[in-house]
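Dear colleagues,

As part of the handover before I leave the project, I'm documenting each prediction I ran so the next person doesn't have to rerun anything. This entry is a single chain, and its sequence is reproduced below.
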Amino acid sequence: MAYIGKEPADSFISFAKQDFSTSATTSYTLDNAVTNENELALFINFVRQEPTTAYTASGTSLTLTSATASTDDMYCVYLGKAVQTVNPPSGSVGASQLASDAVTAAKANFFNADTLAADLGTGLHVKTADSGASANTSSDELVVEGSGTSGISILSGNGSSGVVDFGDDGDNNVGRIIYSHADNNMTFTTNGSERMRINSNGNIQIGTTTESARIHIRSATTAGTDPLVVFSDASGTTCGSIDLNASGNTVAYVTSSDHRLKENVSYDFDATSRLKQLKPARFNFIADPDTTVDGFIAHEVSSIVPEAITKTKDAVKVWKDNEVLPDGVSVGDNKLDDDGNTIPDYQGIDQSKLVPLLVKTIQELEARITELENA
């Protein structure tokens, strides 16, 4: 007799029955260990016995209050738990079947990448305990969220590399980020070819693996002009560029000058009088006292050719609204160094902006010379 009553239809439920060979004794051995007598139903001569009163059980030991006779018919049915190990049917275990602490951090810390489900549904959402985040509603496949600092770590061998691959739906590797522990280089690959690397010195190579400067950019062309760096405003209008002329082995530092960007154009102004206000000087920088150079003092030029000068005289650095503010500091407050002193925000000069004034002055002088010569 395998079951009491109707045989369960679900293979996940399996109540085992044990028949005993009786004798004049009170001690019997159970086939399956139990916590106590309440986990089994004992029948003697087809009469169910009362747990604790008629028998007790612990582990695999069954003890009767009164000894049986060899002619008695005795069996038990294990009730307290399923004693046959079976695989749950697919989809039969849900969140309600799991205790809140069933999956510990230690159990979740590692997984077998080969057996991780490929389809994550709405994505894998990792939240720190203090994030205060709501349920995962993101359509991203992986979200790491926290109210403080969050991140993802890739740990690999000392002589190996950490790799992030990007592939298409054909599982083709079309992009890669690699950090090599062997040489401490980080490389960036697209379409199977390395495009950029940051080496162990923090130097950047674009289009090349040769380190020759803090930033080394290699053009993709051997003839003609190749814009290496382009500057544009928020609307996308190009404001300038750094162009390489591969044919002439030169570089041009370009600022926009197209007529379509300008209005109120005038060619009639007194350049000589303005030029005479400039004060060319010789000086050395404080950081290099042994080197004397020619140049200008920025604020002395600002009223004559203002477009040549950046920032204002005697300015100091202040906190801006896009910066992380220290405690007790507001936007607009002065930035202070470790000694509590304000930090200078130095003026600069683009001396190429003086060229139009110089050219116009030469033209005016040439006209005066010609007039004197013809007098």
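Residues 8-13, 113-121 have pLDDT under 50 and may be disordered. The CA atoms of residues 22 and 71 lie 7 Å apart.

All the best with the project,
I.
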